[in-house]
Amino acid sequence: MKKYDFDTLANRQIDNARKWDQSIVKAKFPNVRKDFIPLWIADMDFQAAPEIRTALSEMSINGAYGYTYPTERWYQSVIDWYKKRHNVVIKKEWITLGYGTVPNMHILVQSFLDANDSILLNTPIYGPFAYAAEHNNRQVITVPLLKHNNRYEIDWVNVERNMKEKHPKATFFCSPHNPSGRIWSKSEIIKMAELCQKYHVLFVSDEVHSEHIIEGTFTSSLEMDSEYMDNLVMFTSPNKAFNLGGLKLSYSIIPNETIRNQFRKQYTKNSVTSPNVPGQIAMTTAYEECDEWLDQCATYIKDNLEITKTYIDKYFEGWKMMEMDSSYLPWIDVSKAKLDMHEIAKIMAEDAGVVVGIGDDYVSDADDFLRLNLGTSHAVIEEAMSRMAKTWQKVIANEMENV
Ligand SMILES: Cc1ncc(COP(=O)(O)O)c(C=O)c1O
Question: Aminotransferase class I/classII large domain: which residues (predicted)?
């Protein structure tokens, strides 16, 4: 078996990574240490799979970057991926190529919601879910998730009450959940689908975090019985799994023809036609050839998680990492910490030189949370955790000024 190298990181200056950019980080933390380690924006520092790099090099050297179309091979790669990774059979006509999951959410809102219509979100949730409604002058209904045994649970009574009383047009369901990494069980997914059907709410499932599994088994909404398929829109992309976010490619799977046509109409209105050339090549290669890279990447991240957990348990009084089943983004409850999340993020940037994500970036109910990004080498995670631990020891010992 080929062994992939996750210790050698890409040079993030070459792709102008936002996460590493001095001016972008300084806008958030003006006094950040110059040698900061960014554990915030959710992309990974690993080099993409060598198979993808080879395919992109061939394209690059060939020198033609003109107009293209979604190829048969691309469709087949999606169909095969779902069969081999999720044991789900999907039909070619259900698939629509898109230009990012977040743009797809905006397009969905434009297609299905009239002025004053709303979407329902279980919060906290990834910020752009709300922007899709807000940027289009539509409303957001939030239903806070419940915390039980260090994991989020859906507040079913509250979800049903809101659907019944406020009549949202769609629910944007994050599966697995970002920010906590929680995998929803098949029965939870079906329960949500049932409620959506009962109250005529379109069930929109975002499954971009489904490929990095740490614990348990992911169930796709596409595994539900056919009775639920007529009310389902599934959005995903290879971007989180294979670190291809900058190539701006994604897709939707919509089994119901009427819903699919209504969604596609908005594409036509905006004349969205030719896909991104490197995006299509990278994605096809990822789905055809890079299973093993993905599995090894998930194992590597699991080790980063162990390193992080060990540090947090030992040195970070008042911090508690929520149980996570997927992704590379631990969600840390700091409600019992000595400082609030903004103060912690600030001293970590300034004293430790580690940039962390703050709860503010998520929709509601995240006032006491920080998020880390473990998509980097063991050496970087060791260095970041060790720096943060030293800073936190100073906080606990009241040795920090300006706090
Ligand atoms: C839940 C969720 N959906 C969508 C995205 C973005 O996906 P894409 O790169 O396909 O636009 C992210 C990125 O962090 C995310 O966390």
Answer: 40-387
The reply to whether ligand 1 has any atom less than 6 angstroms from the CB of 357 is no
41 lines ligand 1 (CB under 6 A): no
- CATH node for 18-49+291-396: 3.90.1150.10
Distances, alpha carbon 59 to alpha carbons 62, 185, 280, in Å: 5, 41, 11
| CATH numeric code, 64-289 | 3.40.640.10
Cα–Cα distance for residue pair 134/106, rounded to 1 Å = 10
Q: Is 206 in the pocket of ligand 1 (CB under 6 A)?
A: yes
Q: Where are the domains of the chain?
A: 18-49+291-396, 64-289
Closest by alpha carbon to 297, among 376, 217, 216, 183?
A: 376
Cα 202 to averaged position of ligand 1 atoms, centre (Å): 20
Domain 18-49+291-396 shares a fold with domain 64-289: no
- Beta strand segments in 294-391, E: 320-321, 331-333, 354-358, 362-363, 369-371
Q: Is 245 in the pocket of ligand 1 (CB under 6 A)?
A: yes
Pocket test for ligand 1, best of 97, 126, 205 (most atoms within 8 A of CB): 126
Mutate to test the pocket of ligand 1, among 40, 101, 182, 235 (most ligand atoms within 8 A of CB): 101
CA of 204 to the centre of ligand 1 (A): 14
Length of the chain: 403
Full pLDDT tens readout for the chain, 403 residues: 889 999 999 999 999 999 999 999 999 999 999 999 999 999 999 999 999 999 999 999 999 999 999 999 999 999 999 999 999 999 999 999 999 999 999 999 999 999 999 999 999 999 999 999 999 999 999 999 999 999 999 999 999 999 999 999 999 999 999 999 999 999 999 999 999 999 999 999 999 999 999 999 999 999 999 999 999 999 999 999 999 999 999 999 999 999 999 999 999 998 777 889 999 999 999 999 999 999 999 999 999 999 999 999 999 999 999 999 999 999 999 999 999 999 999 999 999 999 999 999 999 999 999 999 999 999 999 999 999 999 999 999 988 766 6
The finding on whether 250 has its CB within 6 A of some atom of ligand 1 is yes
DSSP 150: T
The closest of 307, 304, 295 to 377, measured between CA atoms, is 304
